[in-house]
Write a structure and sequence with these properties.
3 helices; AhpD-like
Protein backbone atom coordinates (compact mmCIF):
# COMPACT_ATOMS: atom_id res chain seq x y z
CA UNK A 1 0.00 0.00 0.00
CA UNK A 2 1.11 3.52 -0.55
CA UNK A 3 2.17 3.18 -4.17
CA UNK A 4 -1.10 4.37 -5.70
CA UNK A 5 -0.69 8.13 -5.31
CA UNK A 6 -1.40 9.03 -8.95
CA UNK A 7 -4.52 6.88 -9.03
CA UNK A 8 -5.81 8.23 -5.72
CA UNK A 9 -5.39 11.82 -6.88
CA UNK A 10 -7.30 11.07 -10.10
CA UNK A 11 -10.13 9.49 -8.13
CA UNK A 12 -10.31 12.38 -5.64
CA UNK A 13 -10.49 14.86 -8.54
CA UNK A 14 -13.20 12.70 -10.12
CA UNK A 15 -15.22 12.52 -6.92
CA UNK A 16 -15.09 16.28 -6.51
CA UNK A 17 -16.05 16.75 -10.17
CA UNK A 18 -19.23 14.72 -9.76
CA UNK A 19 -20.35 16.51 -6.61
CA UNK A 20 -18.73 14.85 -3.62
CA UNK A 21 -17.79 17.28 -0.89
CA UNK A 22 -14.35 17.51 0.65
CA UNK A 23 -15.79 16.16 3.89
CA UNK A 24 -17.19 13.11 2.09
CA UNK A 25 -13.83 12.40 0.45
CA UNK A 26 -12.06 12.64 3.80
CA UNK A 27 -14.62 10.38 5.47
CA UNK A 28 -14.15 7.73 2.78
CA UNK A 29 -10.39 7.82 3.24
CA UNK A 30 -10.80 7.48 7.01
CA UNK A 31 -12.95 4.39 6.41
CA UNK A 32 -10.10 2.95 4.31
CA UNK A 33 -8.05 2.63 7.50
CA UNK A 34 -10.07 -0.47 8.41
CA UNK A 35 -9.09 -2.25 5.21
CA UNK A 36 -5.75 -0.78 4.14
CA UNK A 37 -4.34 -0.01 7.60
CA UNK A 38 -3.90 3.31 9.30
CA UNK A 39 -0.60 4.42 7.68
CA UNK A 40 -2.09 4.01 4.19
CA UNK A 41 -5.14 6.03 5.24
CA UNK A 42 -2.90 8.80 6.61
CA UNK A 43 -1.05 8.89 3.29
CA UNK A 44 -4.40 9.10 1.53
CA UNK A 45 -5.43 12.04 3.68
CA UNK A 46 -2.22 13.84 2.81
CA UNK A 47 -2.70 13.22 -0.91
CA UNK A 48 -6.34 14.29 -0.77
CA UNK A 49 -5.32 17.55 0.91
CA UNK A 50 -2.83 18.08 -1.95
CA UNK A 51 -5.73 17.78 -4.39
CA UNK A 52 -7.80 20.23 -2.33
CA UNK A 53 -4.94 22.75 -2.48
CA UNK A 54 -4.64 22.29 -6.25
CA UNK A 55 -8.30 23.15 -6.68
Amino acid sequence: MGNATPQLKVHVHGALNVGASREEVLEIIIQIAVYARFPAALNGLTWAKDVFRER
